[in-house]
Design a protein that fits this description.
Residues 116-225 form the TonB-dependent receptor plug domain. Residues 367-812 form the TonB-dependent receptor-like beta-barrel domain. InterPro entries: Beta-barrel_TonB, Beta-barrel_TonB_sf, CarboxyPept-like_regulatory, Plug_dom, TonB-dep_rcpt-like. It is a multi-pass membrane protein. With 851 residues, this protein is mainly beta. The chain is 6% helix and 54% strand. The strands form 12 sheets. It has a 22-stranded antiparallel beta barrel. The protein is globular and about 100 Å long. The two termini are 40 Å apart.
């Protein structure tokens, strides 16, 4: 904390010495002479802006020399440009004309306010209103709108968030590596992937940047970034309330209240809660499981000591406590093991039958309860001080994550693994200081420093414990000693580990306008990462014996492991972009960049070879990324956009998660593939027809391959063969569909009075599809998921300021589909599935008040 305060002191000193300057003042009206409330006024090319008050008045401080241009925008009006060559002698009167064309989307990813079509970055922008109306209340649902995003989650801890198929290891999470997709909320980096499973709270906008972004963001991002902004405190009173009801007992409530506390203080409090009954049925307990039980709260306090300084204090807490994330047995793969070691023979010998062999019957008989206690929150202090032609920003944050799980990792009603509980606690401290703005009339950019300190430890220990059926699944010979009564009953491992990390970086990116049409954007980053892990795993329980033969059998299942690793790595990366804008309607760009994913350490146990722990696998090499893309953003008309981009990413020492037949290697282990390549083409377009019809769509072709992975573990069906490793060079990367796309739109009526409200009727629909993809790090013919298409729709009326009611449906055709397939612990042959949601439907009632 002392280090964070030291970083913050220069900002506070500069804020205290900020002095008053002249400002441009004025009033914004429409063609009828009515004030336009909430219109945005921006000094073009900067993030200096003002919001029109309830009388349409604004005051924007001077932050650059004349001449400059003001951009004035508001929903439903044409974008207006006002060029100023000197300070006006009196207030400006600006009149906005009504517009049925597409609204220009303003983004902040480059640390300034600018329109998405004008930035030389492949970016998808989803407004908070679309997030709410489409029912995309978390990242997993958001991926149906942005097809280049992939999210896989067998529970909050074991969550993979990827863009273009890369970013994080596919499958079960290993805490010793960093994600490659940055996840930011109001400028604060969230290190734990569990954050992506929580509900959004009071979202203003989601920006999804594709490709490495290490020269713009504090934490290194090799695959892309989610830049999420929430709605900020307002100096005019406002309130939003929403409640939704649906089948499966679905209830979701949201609320946000904001307003002034004084002339310089404003506050905002936001709440979100979601509950739903389970979609699986446990035939033993006679209960539905895989329910939703989410709760989130966010509070913000805004202080504006002057028109140059903005200080925001934010606190949030989100929790999940479902009896959820259970998986159902989806099938059985014959392995190369002897007949007595095949899954079907094993369960026949134990007189056991699965409750159903059709996973979409949604029946389970798990004898270990599923628990996914996921709690995440923190406090952040953000200071923006306008200095010269830009803004100096300090973001100080502390965050925590508490994880309290229980899993049935054998996916059956047998007592194979009767306990699987990786309780953990995580704390992180981050500090970012950056300056973004104009350096000269032709040169602008951003420069910053970033530090992150993390501490992840078991709470108090991770436990894996066998039951009385473990002997039959682990049996690897015909010796009768395997059936010794009580040999494995209660036999398990307790792991105590701690991972402490530090990451530091200096980063920057310039935008040099050689001419008004040609821009060169170089960027550079220096990164340093250090990780220290202490790992201690001890066996306990089972039959207490001195018989060396019985002890040898127990050691086949679990062994003691102790190792320490202390690793560090530094690197330099960068990017160079050339942008060409021959007209306002065309923005062409080409980017070459290098990036690095930090060094890793294995933190889930190590495999053995010849009875010895393979400690050489404790350290995982950093990824080295070379990335190229070329694209064109176009506006063929005021009512349309059409963009296309080609991308190619080559990764050396690709960090991959691999499954092992050893039960004691919890969550698999990490390895480096020599080289992988991902390339593809992405298209997105939008169209607005008058004020009544709006359409949008995206299409992505992605080809991901292991260029070289000569020592990969064998797939599930080759377990038990003569080789434990296989050359899978040329095989498909997991989790990537060659084709994915989404299309949607909305039809809106003319304004009218509905239930006493100034409102419009609307009908909206969207569809998401993806082709088949591999669900195994080593390609397996049994762990491929068929492609599927989902349809969603909504209809109702939307008030401009008041009551909104609409009905909605998701997966309207009730498509049965898998989101993920994963082998059971020990590779006995059976594998389980994360099932997609069945058809859901309901109604949403929303009330908004803005003074």
């Amino acid at each position: 904390m002392r280090k964070s305060l030291l970083f913050l002191m220069p900002i506070l000193l500069l804020a205290g010495t900020a002095f008053s300057q002249d400002a441009v003042v004025g009033v914004i009206k429409n063609g009828e002479g009515t004030s336009v409330v909430g219109a945005t006024v921006v000094i073009k090319g900067t993030n200096v802006h003002a919001i029109a008050d309830t009388s349409g008045r604004f005051s924007i401080p001077l932050r650059r020399a004349f001449p400059f241009t003001l951009l004035i925008s508001s929903l439903g009006y044409k974008l207006e440009e006002v060029k100023l060559t000197s300070l006006p002698t009196g207030p400006l009167t600006i009149t906005l004309s009504s517009d049925n064309s597409l609204s220009e989307v303003v983004i902040s990813s480059r640390r300034r306010l600018e329109t998405a079509q004008q930035v030389p970055i492949p970016i998808s922008v989803i407004s908070g209103s679309l997030v709410a109306d489409a029912g995309a209340f978390n990242v997993n649902r958001l991926k149906e709108i942005v097809p280049t995003v992939q999210l896989y989650s067998s529970n909050p801890r074991n969550t993979t968030l990827n863009i273009r198929g890369v970013g994080s290891t596919f499958g079960l999470t290993n805490d010793g590596i960093d994600p490659g997709v940055g996840f930011y909320v109001d400028g604060v980096y969230y290190a734990r992937p569990a954050a992506t499973t929580l509900d959004f709270i009071d979202i203003e906008q989601v920006e999804v940047l594709r490709g490495p972004q290490g020269t713009l963001f504090g934490k290194n991002t090799t695959a892309g970034a989610f830049n999420i902004t929430t709605r900020q405190p307002s100096f005019t009173p406002e309130a939003n309330f929403e409640v939704s009801y649906g089948n499966y007992g679905y209830i979701q409530a949201k609320a946000a209240v904001s307003g002034p506390l004084s002339k310089k203080f404003a506050a905002r409090v936001s709440f979100s809660g979601t509950q739903r009954d389970g979609t699986l049925y446990n035939v033993v307990t006679q209960k539905h499981i895989n329910d939703l039980n989410n709760l989130g709260l966010r509070g913000q306090l805004l202080y504006t000591p002057s028109d140059k300084v903005k200080i925001t204090l934010t606190a949030d807490n989100s929790e999940q406590h479902p009896e959820g994330y259970a998986q159902v047995v989806a099938g059985v793969a014959p392995t190369l093991r002897p007949a007595y070691r095949q899954f079907k023979q094993i369960i026949a010998d134990l007189n056991y039958k699965l409750p159903s062999e059709n996973p979409f019957d949604r029946l389970v008989d798990h004898n270990t309860p599923w628990r996914s206690g996921n709690e995440l929150g923190g406090v952040a202090l953000n200071v923006d001080a306008k200095i010269g032609g830009g803004t100096l920003t300090s973001t100080t944050a502390w965050r925590y994550w508490n994880w309290d799980p229980s899993n049935d990792r054998d996916f059956t009603g047998l007592a194979v693994l009767q306990l699987s509980q990786a309780t953990s606690k995580h704390k992180q401290w981050t500090q970012e200081v950056r300056y973004a703005g104009d350096l000269t009339s032709r040169l602008s950019g951003v420069i910053g420093v970033f530090g992150i300190w993390q501490d992840l430890k078991t709470d108090p220990a991770h436990i894996e414990e066998s039951g009385d059926a473990q002997w039959r699944f682990s049996q690897s010979s015909t010796s009768e000693l395997w059936a010794t009564p009580g040999l494995f009953d209660g036999y398990g491992i307790k792991t105590v580990s701690r991972l402490k990390t530090f990451g530091g970086a200096v980063f920057g990116q310039l935008d040099w306008a050689i001419t008004d049409q040609i821009h060169v954007l170089p960027g550079l980053r220096y990164n340093y990462d250090k990780k220290k892990v202490d790992y201690d795993r001890k066996t306990y329980g089972g039959l207490q014996t001195d018989d060396p033969d019985l002890i040898a059998l127990k050691n086949i299942v679990y062994t003691n492991q102790t190792f320490n690793a202390d690793v560090d790595e530094s690197n330099v990366s960068g990017q160079l972009t050339l942008a060409y804008k021959p007209t306002k309607a065309i923005n062409a760009f080409a980017t070459y960049s290098t990036s690095y994913k930090p060094i890793g350490v294995n933190l889930g146990g190590l495999p053995t070879s010849g009875g010895k722990v393979m400690t050489e696998l404790a350290r995982i090499n950093p990824e080295s990324v070379k990335h190229f893309e070329v694209g064109v953003k176009t506006s063929p008309g005021k009512n349309a956009t059409a963009n296309i981009v080609y991308h190619r990413t080559d990764i050396k020492d690709y960090q991959t998660q691999v499954q092992t037949a050893e039960v004691g290697v919890n969550r698999g282990y990490l390895a480096n593939a020599e080289k992988v390549r991902v390339q593809g083409v992405e298209l997105d377009a939008s169209l607005k027809i008058h004020s009544a019809v709006s359409l949008y769509g995206s299409l992505a072709y992605t080809d991901g391959k292991y260029v070289s992975f000569k020592n990969a573990p064998v797939p599930l069906e080759e377990t038990g063969g003569s080789a434990a490793f296989k050359d899978i060079s040329g095989g498909e990367l997991p989790g990537i569909s060659k084709w994915a796309g989404s299309i949607g739109g909305e039809i809106v009526s003319n304004p009218g009075i509905i239930l006493g409200q100034n409102a419009r009727f609307f009908v909206g629909a969207d569809a998401y599809f993806r082709s088949s993809f591999s669900s195994s790090p080593s390609p397996s013919k049994y762990l491929n998921i068929d492609g599927y298409t989902l349809f969603n729709a909504r209809a109702g009326f939307r008030a401009l300021n008041g009551l909104t009611i609409f009905v909605w449906g998701r997966n309207l055709l009730n498509k049965d589909y898998f989101e993920q397939l994963l082998p059971a612990a020990g590779n006995a042959g059976h594998y389980a599935a994360v099932l997609g949601d069945p058809r859901t439907y309901g109604v949403t009632i929303r009330y908004s008040y803005h003074q």
